[in-house]
Design a protein that fits this description.
About 30% of the residues lie in helices and about 25% in strands. It contains five helices and eight strands; from the N terminus they run ββααββββββααα. A hairpin with a 6-residue loop joins strand 1 and strand 2. The protein starts with a strand and ends with a helix.
């Protein structure tokens, strides 16, 4: 039988058979969780949903919380929920397992949640902060006037080449 093994899920896919292992749901990702983690997940989801308008969706093995860009996501594991929060600053706390620079403006903070009672301050405060600053950090703030580098370059070149400037060869002759 001709086919291939899916690189992501390692499932054998017969030739011509449709396969989309990337399509998943919140329910599928949280179905196997023990009761403590399921309670923690529900509290985490409810807390974030109360922040305001956003998109909550499953993607591969994570559940994403996004405004215009993802501000945090959760990876359900067998023994804990791995929570990754995107902030514009580094937080130093014993609750933070690691901090990774994810872009020039964002720092990804990794937190492990093992029980519902952990979904409280300061973690809920960090989630709220991530929600509030997500558009600014992603460069997608609708209130900010955006200028691209290419648009700014012609003006800079014209200024440098103005008569009397060091960069203008004709002015020195």
């Amino acid at each position: 039988m001709r086919g291939h093994e899916c690189y992501h899920c390692k499932q054998w896919v017969a030739e011509g058979e449709p396969h989309d292992c990337w399509t998943t749901t919140e329910a599928a990702l949280t179905r196997e969780l023990p009761e403590d983690l399921r309670d923690a997940w529900e509290r985490l989801r409810d807390t974030a949903a109360d922040f305001g308008e956003q998109r909550i969706y499953a993607s591969h093995n994570s559940i994403m919380f996004s405004r215009k860009a993802c501000y945090f996501f959760v990876r359900p594991k067998q023994k804990y929920l791995e929570l990754v929060i995107f902030l514009g600053r580094v937080i130093k706390s014993p609750k933070i397992r690691s901090v990774v620079e994810s872009s020039k403006a964002k720092r990804a903070h990794v937190v492990r949640i093992t029980h519902r009672d952990e979904v409280e301050a300061p973690i809920t405060g960090w989630l709220r902060e991530a929600y509030d600053v997500s558009e600014r950090l992603s460069g997608r703030d609708s209130t900010k006037k955006r200028t691209t580098k290419k648009a700014a370059q012609p003006a800079a070149r014209a200024h440098a080449a103005a008569p009397g400037r060091r960069g203008d060869r004709r002015a020195r002759r």
